[in-house]
Write a structure and sequence with these properties.
Elements (H helix, E strand, L loop, with lengths): L1 E6 L5 E8 L2 E4 L8 H5 L4 H10 L4 E3 L4 E3 L6 E6 L3 H10 L1 H12 L4 E6 L10 E4 L6 E2 L2 E7 L5 E9 L1 E2 H6 L4 H5 L5 E9 L3 H4 L3 E8 L2 E9 L7 H8 L9 E4 L17 E6 L3 E9 L1
Parallel strand pairs: 6-16, 8-18
Antiparallel strand pairs: 1-2, 1-5, 1-13, 2-3, 3-4, 6-7, 9-12, 10-11, 10-16, 11-13, 14-15, 14-17, 17-18
Helix pairs in contact: 3-4
């Protein structure tokens, strides 16, 4: 089962259920206008089944504009959760290598704030590369969707855009390398009712086109994430409250070669087998 957000014919945001590959159930007549409130349900899959059985409007997926599946949640990110990510971050600079090696092995994960919901790019929106960066890459990631109680409500796709040259220059520049206009994309759906064991069998793929021709592709398995989802949630919710829920990006296991950087106009497609495909074009910000 999958949830989404979309624009109605009146250009107002709405919450929907993906009934099948081509149809969305509009939950507006059921007075469900907030994704965060729906995620607070004690039994979300059961609530979605109830709503699916109601006589609610059904819209063609091809006729609606999907939005990022967040409305009031903060977005955070975990780093160095894949072995490949550790190697790539260590390669960015000798100055940072020891720190990244230690955090991969440490009990405490690397966690950092990524975005407020209104700045998240959705399906078809632009993602950004900084005008003052020379080495910019996408980071395809599984994103965990938690409600305010720390319950893992579902999964979506995330793109944690990064300026590797800025981060590699100095670890203290991480916020500038990670948090800027267009640096986070989510979507297209939130998959509900899936266990961690099932999600760890999913495959993550990325493809990048430049001028209509493929320029990079890669794939990895969610099961390669070193830390359990429960472990990441435990640290994320320590000394923290998220009254409207939170989305956590879980790190990347696909890193383009060192000579690769994104250009304006590139098209980035990220697929996770249990969620769908998130597509964005690249712009300089």
């Amino acid at each position: 089962m999958k949830l989404c957000r979309f624009l109605t014919s009146l250009q107002t945001p709405a919450v929907g259920i993906l009934a099948d590959d081509a149809t969305i159930i509009d939950l507006s007549p059921a007075r469900i206008t907030s994704l965060s409130e729906l995620l607070e349900s004690n039994d979300l899959p059961a609530r979605m089944r109830e709503l699916t059985d109601e006589n609610l409007p059904r819209l063609a997926l091809a006729d609606v504009q999907l939005l990022a599946p967040v409305d009031r949640q903060e977005i955070w990110a975990a780093g160095v959760t894949y072995l490949r990510s550790r190697k790539a971050r260590m390669e960015e600079s000798e100055f940072s290598a020891t720190a990244y090696d230690k955090v991969y092995e440490a009990p405490r994960p690397e966690l950092f704030f990524k975005s407020v919901p209104e700045k998240v790019a959705g399906p078809g929106d632009f993602v950004g590369i900084r005008a003052d960066a020379t080495w910019s890459v996408p980071e395809p990631e599984l994103a965990l969707v938690f409600n305010s109680r720390g319950h893992l409500a579902g999964f979506t796709i995330g793109n944690d855009m990064s300026s590797r040259d800025i981060e590699g220059e100095n670890l203290l520049y991480l916020p500038q390398a990670k948090i800027y206009e267009g640096s986070c994309a989510l979507g297209p759906f939130i998959t509900i009712g899936t266990s961690e064991a099932e999600a760890r069998a999913w495959e993550i793929e990325i493809s990048i086109e430049r001028g209509g021709a493929p320029t990079f592709s890669g794939k990895t398995q969610v099961g390669q994430i070193k830390r359990s989802f429960g472990e990441l949630a435990d640290y994320l919710f320590r000394s923290q409250k998220f009254p409207r829920g939170v989305v956590l990006l879980t790190g990347t296991g696909i890193v383009p070669p060192d000579g690769f950087t994104l250009w304006a106009g590139d098209k980035v497609s990220i697929s996770i087998s249990g969620v769908g495909t998130l597509e964005n074009s690249v712009a300089v910000v």
